[in-house]
Amino acid sequence: MRPFTYERASTPAEAAAIAAHREGARFIAGGTNLLDLMKLGIETPAHLIDVNSLSLDKIEPTPVGGLRIGALVRNTDLAADERVRRDYAVLSRALLAGATGQLRNKATTAGNLLQRTRCPYFYDTAQPCNKRQPGSGCSAIGGVTRHLAVIGASEACIATHPSDMAVAMRALDAVVETVKPDGTTRAIPIAEFHRLPGDAPQLDTTLERGEIITAVTLPPPAGGRQFYRKVRDRASYAFALVSVAAIVQPDGTGRVAMGGVAHKPWRVEAAEAELPRGAKPAMAAILNGAKPMPDNAFKLTLAERILTSVLTEAKG
Amino acid sequence: MKFDTPATTSPIDQLKFVGRPLDRIDGPLKTTGTAPYAYERHDVAPNQAYGFVLGAGIAKGRIAAMDTTAAKAAPGVIAVVSTLDMPRMAKGRMNIAYLFGGAEIQHYHQAIALVVAETFEQARGAAGLIRVDYAREPGRFDLAAAAKTAPLAGGDSDEGSGAPPEDRFGDFEGAFAAAPVQLDETYTTPAESHAAMEPHSSVASWEGDKVTIWTSNQMIAWGRRDVAMTLGIPVEKVRLDSPYVGGGFGGKLFVRVDAILAALGAKAARRPVKIALTRPLIANNTTHRSATIQRIRIGAGRDGKITAIAHESASYNLPDGKPETAVSQTKLLYAGANRLTAMRLAELDLPESNAMRAPGEAPGLMALEIAMDEMAEKLGIDPIEFRILNDTQVDPEHPERPFSQRQLIQCLRQGAERFGWNRRSAISGQRREGQWLVGMGVAAGFRNNLLTKSGARVRLDKSGVVTVETDMTDIGTGSYTIIAQTAAEMMGVPMEKVVVRLGDSDFPASAGSGGQWGANNSTAGVYAACTKLREDVARKLGFNSADAVFTDGVVRAGNREVPLGQAAGEEGMTAEDVIEYGDLAKRYQQSTFAGHFVEVGVDAMTGETRVRRMLAVCAAGRILNPKSARSQVIGAMTMGVGAALTEELSLDKRLGFFVNHDLAGYEVPVHADIPHQEVIFLDEVDPISSPMKAKGVGELGLCGVGAAIANAIHNATGIRLRDYPMTLDKLLDKLPQPA
Asked: CB of B160 within 8 A of CB of B356?
């Protein structure tokens, strides 16, 4: 077997320090993604740092009227939280659109942000993949790409980020709080948290070595009507072909973030000025520069139609 | 027992047990997790080691070199068996791909090495240390490209309906050209995976030169023979035991590499070895259903009578393979004086294509029953009436051959009534409920009834317990229960007095589970054995066997009554027999029929299709147990939803493999996809079929469902899709533009 060592950390700073110094260390919380990847030989950590006892499982109000979600809050609990359901409905809806009840019971807030792509070529260790094995090439480009990115991709990688939760958080302007190995903290706006693949698709996020997520902070409620519309082939337990998180205000202004289209939750703030003019111009601006493959070009049409549907419902 | 004249009255007709919706006798074992499946047979052989199978990372070529040094040195490793250690192994009769041995790679994830270790994790870890250098060769992976020049090929599926390479009756071309209403369309179905919940698993143990394999297999006698052929040992030296099978769907009709490598691994390790194929290996290492390209032409008069019908299909396989017999039902389902069926078989370097639930009819009807819907629309006739207009009570090519029973019209009529067909708008795209475009679709279901000999042994002990032994399998279908019902009925004992033991090759060979033939044939075999036992008991008691009545645990004749256990005596009594069939299947066409009804909603904006209601009305002979039969049919209907809407092995045509090789990527339906399902069995007995007067239903429930969904999508949206699965991307551009 591939041997690995295991230990429990007692504080975030301790966890970060261990992770910085141990070669091949990984944090483990719910394990819903990491354990699968370990079984397949895609992730081969030498050391697991169990962070489940870090007491990061609270949802608390912030002084400015927002919400601070502990990194270890389970997806089920977050989706069911009364404040989330009332003030951040898009987040609750996104969470419930993801995975299954069993997985949501285990999966954590931080883990959800850090889940890896579901690109089938990433999952097949016999195939080259720059994300799995930097420099080996991308076998997805030119292959079966129906589920893969249509915008923001690179010649090195056309993977998508699979999270629903992160898409809603992107629409909510969430901030990811971290602790670094030296004990200092950082607040990373979610827009800057996930990366585009560029020439280093092995890096999913801007986290530094050892840096650990402690919480996700939501600003005060954005109001408006909030939607999470996830479109997929089967009715449940499938990743989005395209998903749209939208917050629409009574005056027709709003915010839109998308899943299933890019290496990160996709949002173009500048394009949102088009929203009052309707879905077509708005989506054209949001997906400006898209370069789909023949078998995923439908995502562009689908995205526009989902937004149309959402804006229609918002008016109703 | 030779069954060569139609059945008359027998003890089965009492229907005290047979025909009743009894609970599964193996239900408590299943629900408590105590039914031992192959990988859980910890107790059958001591000191089991774990095997892990490594699959090839290329689709076509050779292994230039393999370095197993690091794997052999890894902790816990007992043995590494490499495909380079031996020449290519012989093939079992049912196998198309070679399973192991030699340097040549025929398809992706072909097994190339087995690591045996003390733990599963050690075996898996060590397998990851094996380094393989491949010499890739260009492969042929594209059916559409190959179909144009593919040769005609006949064949049967080994699990049902066959068809010759080309079959002509009358003058198709002339009649089609002359027909005032014509249809000429092409339909495609994708490659599909059986995706059984239980992966292929085996435990193997050698005792001298004899190997026992505890496995998960639908067909024990085939499997035993093919294990012997592959290993090159006499068949007497092989024992297979497969009492519980966690889903097969045709994927476990044949011996696969789990059994062969468990045997090789056990030999190398000198101790028992267990193997389960990992989920990622299932799609490319085992068998799958070939994709098809089907062209259908139908010509009819304005009166709606079909005058010409042609169905041509192309599928693929490895060398020495067989076609997907997608045209077979078209020979029998509808009338028409001029007919043509043809199959082309392309040789491709993809994993082995082979039988999957209702091979032939399942994909064939997915095409034919859309074509019938289209033709009805062209004619301006209701699709149910169009089918009824073209019903035939005889084999269209052999009018002297009637169907033994054919209640297709009744299935359609009763279904229409029950489903509220009269609420369907004949014009498509008319019904809207909020965001949903709503429509109804219908299709005929058809699947042949197959007869094959089946044996059983019945033992009666002094306490009056009847034990049935047969190598019949229960793949989740309910075999245990219907066999017990048969024995209880025949021997006149309550269900609690019947013990059923299945799946062991030491037991008499049975029909096995496949082609929806299992229920009828295996119970007929039990009927034969019980008939013999009844005669033996009567003779022993000095009764005239015709006068002896077996009921409530006693044998009675005249005013004399003897408890069955007492009749058996201290030693007990055993009888064994085989049901064999005469030429009734030649004189009569034996088939099962269904009317499948579906209502769908299609999201007008996103094109998502969700099934809202389903109904199947089935005419399939006597239903031995309405409860387990219903389970079979709703399971099959669920599979039909998958085939229609989501299931597709996604082929990388450059690299030659199915990329979505897990259950996240290969989307079988989940609970949220399946609405209320209703099943109605028409009251039917078929004395031509067997002494049980039963047929099969396990595949009938699938046959036609996909097309009914496609037709419902058309009724909802006005969009005619001819390419499965009918995912939203195929609808989007044709849906109404948003306002």
From this structure: no
* pLDDT tens column, B243-293: 999 999 999 999 999 999 999 999 999 999 999 999 999 999 999 999 999
Looking at the predicted complex, does its ipTM rise above 0.90?
yes
Strands A59-61 and A67-70: antiparallel
Indicate if the pLDDT at residue B497 is higher than 70: yes
Cα distance between residue B251 and residue B512, in whole Å:
14
Contacts A120 to B, Cβ<8 Å: 650, 659-661, 665
The whole-chain average pLDDT of chain B stands at 97
Give me the amino acid identity at B706: G
Instruction: Tell me: pLDDT of B157 over 70.
Output: no
| C-alpha–C-alpha distance, residues A294 and A298, integer Å | 8
Q: How far apart are CA A10 and CA B382, in angstroms?
A: 71
Residue A68 Cα to chain centre, angstroms: 17
- Using the predicted structure, report yes or no on whether residue A1 has a pLDDT greater than 90: no
First and final C-alpha spacing in chain B: 71
Tokens, residue B215:
């496995």
B491/B575 Cα distance (integer angstroms) = 12
Residue B475 contacts residue B248 (beta carbons within 8 Å): yes
- The interface residues of chain B toward chain A in range 418-447, judged by CB-CB distance below 8 A, are 435
Q: Which two tokens stand for residue A119?
A: 């690109």
Task: Single out the residue of B521, B517, B547 nearest to residue B534, CA to CA.
Answer: B547
Full-model pTM: 0.98
Helix locations, B11-79, DSSP H: 27-31, 69-73
- Of the candidates B606, B670, B738, the beta carbon closest to that of A235 is on B670
Calculate how close chain B gets to A120, using CA atoms only, in Å.
6
B699 is catalytic: yes
Q: Is residue B570 packed enough to be buried (19+ CB in 10 Å), middle (13-18) or exposed (0-12)?
A: exposed
Amino acid (1-letter code) at residue A27: F
Is the model's pLDDT at B638 over the cut of 90? yes
Calculate how close chain B gets to A305, using CA atoms only, in Å. 6
In a 3-state reduction of DSSP, which class is residue A215? Answer: strand
DSSP state of A240: -
